[in-house]
Every structure is written in C-alpha cells, then in structure tokens.
Amino acid sequence: MKAALLTAIRQFEIRTVPSLSIVRENDALIKMNAVGICGSDIHYYTQGKIGDQVISFPFIVGHEGVGTVEQTGKKVTRVRPGDRIAIDPAVSCGHCDQCLAGRENTCRNLLFLGCPGKMEGCLREYIVLPEKCCFPISDALSFEHAVISEPLAIALYAVEQSPALPGAKVAVLGAGPIGMSVFNALKYKNTGAIYITDVIEQRVAFAKRYGPAWCGNAHTVDVVKEISKREPLFLDVVYECCGKPEALLQAIELLKPGGTLAIIGIPETDIIPFPMHSLRRKEITVKNIRRQNKCTRKAITLLDTAIKDFGPLVTHRFSLEQTPEAFDLVASYRDGVMKAVVMLG
Fold first, then answer.
1. In whole angstroms, what is the distance from residue 76 CA to residue 23 CA?
2. Cβ neighbours of residue 273 under 8 Å, at least 6 residues apart?
3. I need a labelling partner for 217 at 20 to 30 A (CA). Which of 2, 244, 245, 309 fits?
4. Which domains, ranges and CATH numbers included, belong to the chain?
5. In angstroms, rounded to a whole number, what is the distance separating the alpha carbons of residues 114 and 41?
6. Are 252 and 259 in contact (CB under 8 A)?
7. What digits encode the pLDDT tens for the residues 98-131?
8. Model pTM greater than 0.85?
9. What are phi and psi of 123, to 5 degrees?
C-alpha cells in the first residue's frame, strides 16, 4: 500500500509500505478516505518533535482520520465492513488507574496515531485500530467534513473541562481550526460574549464572519485594552488555542479574579514562564487540555446538526501524492488555509 513518510525535517516521500492485516479479534482494518493536517503534525514536520516525543525517521504522521471499514475481527460488534467511520486516534488500555478513573486521555499505556514511540499515523491507504476507536458517521456527512470531528472533539472536551456557564464572558486566543471549533462549541453552549484573536489577518477576517463580540489582530492592536473597554470586569474563561507564550500572558491579563485559563495550544518551547504574582493574586485556575476524552461521538452528532458552521473550516484538499505541498502550505499559513485535508479515495 502507499503511504506518505516523513523522512526528514520538511521532507516527505510517497512510498510503498507493507500491507496490514487484522491480528486481534477486536480490531478493524480501515481503508483511509481522508486525513486532516493538524498543528501537531506541523510540529513534527518543522521540528521533528513535540517535547520529548522525537521522531525516528522515516515515520508516518497523521491522526485526524476518517475511512471505510474493510474487514473486522471475529469479536467486533460496533462496526461492520462497508461502514463509514470517523476515528478516535487514542488507544487506551482500559485497565490502568487513569482509565478506571475515567481519564482515558491520560492512560498510563496510551497509544496515539502518528505519535513517535506509540503508533504510526494514518497518512497511508489502510490502518488497523481497535473497534472502540471506530465511530460510524451518517451518509450525509462527507469524509472531508467528518475529519473535523477530531479537533472538534478536543474543543468539546475543553469546554466541558472549563465550563463557561450561560452568560459567561470568554475569549478564544487563536482562530485556527481548534480555536474556531472552540468558538462554535461555545456558541452551542449558550455562552455570553465571545472574543477572539489571531495574528494572521486572513484568520481574523474568517473569524469575523461568525459574529464574535469582538475580533482583532494581536499584532496590530492591544487586544487586552480593546477587550477591557467592552468588559471592564474582564473575562470568566480564556481558551488559549495557538501555543504562543505571548497569548498565555494576554490570557492572564484578560481574566477576572477566579477566572479559568484553559491551555489547548501546543507550544514550540518546552518551558514557558508565568507571571506568578498575577496568577496568585487573581487566584486563576490553569487547566491543561490533553486531547479529547469520550467526546468523539458528541462531535459527530454536532457536525450532523451544525455542518453550516463547521464545514467552512475545510479550505484546501490534496491527494496523497500532494502531501508535501499540503504540509508546506499549512506550515507557512499561506492562501488563507484553515484546515487542509489529504483525500485518499
């Protein structure tokens, strides 16, 4: 089968790799139809690592996958051959202390698609996963739009972990696919005023189409000053979705005493200093968001009912052979790219 292998920093090769087959009775063989390119994939593409997760080249990245069930193991009951599915890329063990506590996203033995030292990713024609990672989608949901279920599941989990109650004032820092997914998830939670920022003017323009309370470019305006004009008591929750240290500092300034900072973005640096006295005096709660946890089905359900809000996030489509061009586009933020999707058939 064909696969796109990351062979060095900023280098892909399309190669033929060994075919896969079902080994465990609860596994499914999946023909990949579409794979979204995530910001974490770009970290591997440009730096070869995220923290201590370092790629040994060559390696197959990609975890935002949807496909068609080709074959199932003898004990599989939740899907059958021919089913169109979205994939939860996390494979938890189900028996460690974290899993038993309902924290499958921090499983002690967690495997994850496209993560070095764990599992190779889904930028290939076929993958094998346990049936618990397979979620049927309706025929009305296209494969390219179903890809959004993975970042949307993270957004829904983030909102659940840092609840913005009806009427709460919030900000989303970073208007990329995760940020816009958080924004839309908040809208469906009947949140109060939602403010959103980015440093790419095309993304600011994209976000403005969704009607936030205010939207601005953090490189050209003082976003803390602008938001505080509208919210003199400041905000209840800030969702940091871009992984930039300066956004974390803005978030702390924007929060009211007792507010919550939800960190979703993945930074390029390993250590980021915090203004501890501001955190302490405001009694800010800092909540780190680790992927998604039991939110994939919720994301698919929301996509079924609100595709008009999420569909426009998919802006670019590429073939498997065009994977190098796709990653180069996303890494350089060119051509107004929001979500690029590699279509495999």
1. 12
2. none
3. 309
4. 2-150+293-343 (3.90.180.10), 163-288 (3.40.50.720)
5. 8
6. no
7. 999 999 999 999 999 999 999 999 999 999 999 9
8. yes
9. -80, 60
